[in-house]
Write a structure and sequence with these properties.
Helix content is about 25%, strand content about 35%. The chain is an alpha+beta fold.
Length: about 150
């Protein structure tokens, strides 16, 4: 495991490690990336707002018990300052009923004494197909809801 990079990397490196952990169904590695703060928050598509490590870890254990998610985020938009970073990504496409949809995630990171850490992961289902990727980028792959 790339523990040093996950714990001390940039916000973008922490995000890459987050999706890598999801793709490996590695809850322990995933939880190392969150800030050591009871105010952290996670909202899964259609789910309630979860606060704190215990609730967030339990939710990921339940989701990843079904297997890895295989999410390849694309079309990242980022806003940074010295102490925080906000990234929005397209996580993939899905079908809701018979209608096409796509997943949009907001990931928020804070600079802590231990390095950049996630403080919020919020995923929503958006109607329709994902918007066109910018030239040179790849379209988001199909994904299951988490």
């Amino acid at each position: 495991m790339k523990k040093l990079k996950q714990l001390n990397g940039s916000a973008a490196e922490v995000e890459a490690a987050f999706y890598d952990a999801l793709n490996r169904a590695d809850v322990a590695a995933l939880m190392l990336l969150w800030a050591d703060d009871d105010e952290i928050c996670c909202i899964h598509p259609g789910g309630p707002r979860l606060h704190g490590h215990a609730a967030i870890e339990a939710s990921w254990q339940a989701i990843l018990a079904q297997g890895a998610l295989q999410i390849r985020p694309s079309q990242r938009h980022q806003a940074h300052n010295v102490m925080s970073a906000v990234h929005t990504v397209i996580e993939g496409s899905a079908n809701v009923g018979n209608a096409p949809a796509h997943l949009v995630a907001t990931n928020v990171y804070m600079k802590t004494p231990q390095g950049w850490r996630m403080v919020l992961h919020h995923v929503s289902v958006a109607p329709g197909v994902a918007p066109e990727a910018a030239p040179g980028s790849t379209a988001p792959p199909a994904s299951r809801l988490h």
